[in-house]
Amino acid sequence: MSTNQHDPEIRRKKNTTQTLLQMKRMGEKIAMLTAYDATTAAVMDDSGIPSILVGDSLGMVVLGYETTLQVTMEDMLHHCKAVARGSRYALLIGDLPFLSYQISVQEAVRNSGRLIQEGGMHAVKLEGGRERAETIRAITSTGIPVMGHLGLTPQSVNQFGGFAAQAMTAKAAQRLMEDARILQQSGCFGIVLESIPARLAELVSKHIDIPTIGIGAGAGCDGQVLVTQDMLGMFTRFTPKFVKKFANLNTAMQSAFQQYKTEVQSSEFPAGENTVEMPDDEWQETLRLTNK
Ligand code: KIV
Question: Do 120 and 33 share a domain, yes or no?
Fold first, then answer.
């Protein structure tokens, strides 16, 4: 049984790309989160989160890589399938991993199709601006919705020389603004804006019709996305400035694990209520049969 106490409309209706567009039109902010497994996706559904991103951040917060560059299509498919099994209402967006869409338009269409057909996603996300226009047109022409991603695009981390904020000069800001328009014209239904100045993100959001989803881009975006392991305070290797920890699960988990270890060592766990027993007569018979 669901324990949801949040907006019942958002929870009951299947959310689509049209829901997100409508939310922008109505001035209703969009709350998106990442998920990589069925259990978390189900909790998000119960919490009324309208859209879940199976991000390639998977590589860093679940698979233990330093960057997202090692994530493969097979990794993404594995986790997209899990999220799709756990979610009933959220719009599910699957990230196209590094090299799955940059080599050729054909490969991009094929891999987008796999995230939909095999992974159970409703839309895909890819990184980049004007250089992706042809690819976005080809993917959307097959009926697959595409979300763009501008600003700090983590698959280009080696080109950027780290995870620093982007578009900090007027020229770079102008280029990003143009890229946002090109992504909209190419058919994107939304754009993630990552680590860019807040007033630039707000300007972009006002000047395009499709929703902007910010991460480290201020409150002027049409919605926000956070990596769930960051916002739950589970991932502690580093915490970007823009992350707000809505819980401190790392501390809560450590305390539970330590308590478990203590109780195993002292034989306090498992207690009677955590144990099954056979009827006494069966036990006596067992002793007789085993000569004990
Ligand atoms: O991979 C991811 O989780 C993302 C978000 C940070 C937007 O791309």
Answer: yes
Residue 1 in any domain: the answer is no
Arithmetic mean of pLDDT, 231-255:
95
The pick from 215, 238, 242, 243 for probing ligand 1's pocket by mutation, whose C-beta has the most ligand atoms within 8 angstroms, reads: 215
Amino acid letter, residue 239: T
pLDDT tens, residue by residue, 168-210: 999 999 999 999 999 999 999 999 999 999 999 999 999 999 9
Q: Which residue has the tokens 């478990």?
A: 260
Report yes or no on 3 lying in a domain.
Answer: no
Whole-number Cα distances in Å, 58 to 69, 71, 235: 11, 8, 12
Which residues lie below 8 Å from residue 161, measured CB to CB, with a gap of 6+?
Answer: none
CA-proximal residue: ligand 1, atom 5 (nearest): 55
Summarised one tens digit per residue, pLDDT across range 66-79 is: 999 999 999 999 99
Q: The pTM is what?
A: 0.94
Q: In angstroms, rounded to a whole number, what is the distance separating the alpha carbons of residues 37 and 196?
A: 29
Six token digits for residue 130:
């004007």
Q: How far apart are the CA of 56 and the centre of ligand 1, in A?
A: 6
Burial of 267 (0-12, 13-18, 19+ CB in 10 A): exposed
